[in-house]
Specification:
Radius of gyration: 18 Å
Number of strands: 0
Number of helices: 6
Strand content: under 5%
Order of helices and strands: HHHHHH
Number of domains: 1
Low-confidence stretches: none
Structural class: mainly alpha
Oligomer: single chain
Largest sheet: none
Shape: globular
Length: 144
């Protein structure tokens, strides 16, 4: 039996162009969201590591939704890599002033999204995953 394909229904093309500024802006906004969530969750959860972990998961979820809405390729891989790299950011910045915490969060999220979206722009998935794992491991070793 023949399968009928409707040509009037077109699928949306995932953007293949790499926009450094768009990725940087997404990272900065998500860094601001991370800081806001840590402050809000810190009022209800007294453990800094738990509130930072929850904020990281929420920010990664929002990042996936935003990047998928903007038709950016490999949004899931980028957000998992950024979340794994910056896991524990709240503990790293404990003891700093609020503006330093905000600055480091925005800077690291911005640079993380630029870096991992640059790596994810390549078409072959396996080398992208390997490169992201190597970068995440290197980042985790550097902060340990």
């Amino acid at each position: 039996m023949a399968k009928v394909i409707e040509t009037s229904v077109e699928s949306q093309i995932v953007g293949s162009s790499y926009s450094l500024w768009k990725n940087l802006l997404i990272g900065i906004i998500l860094g601001l969201l991370y800081y806001s969530l840590v402050i809000i969750l810190g009022n209800y959860i007294k453990t800094a590591s738990v509130s930072g972990g929850i904020a990281t998961i929420i920010v990664a979820t929002v990042g996936i939704l935003v990047m998928a809405r903007l038709y950016m390729p490999q949004a899931l891989l980028i957000n998992i890599a950024v979340g794994a790299s910056l896991w524990g950011l709240n503990e790293w910045t404990s003891g700093l002033a609020w503006y330093e915490i905000l600055g480091f969060g925005v800077l690291l999220y911005g640079l993380g999204y630029v870096l991992f979206s640059w790596v994810a722009r390549f078409t072959k998935v396996i080398p992208v995953i390997i490169a992201m794992v190597v970068i995440v491991v290197a980042a985790r070793i550097a902060v340990a």
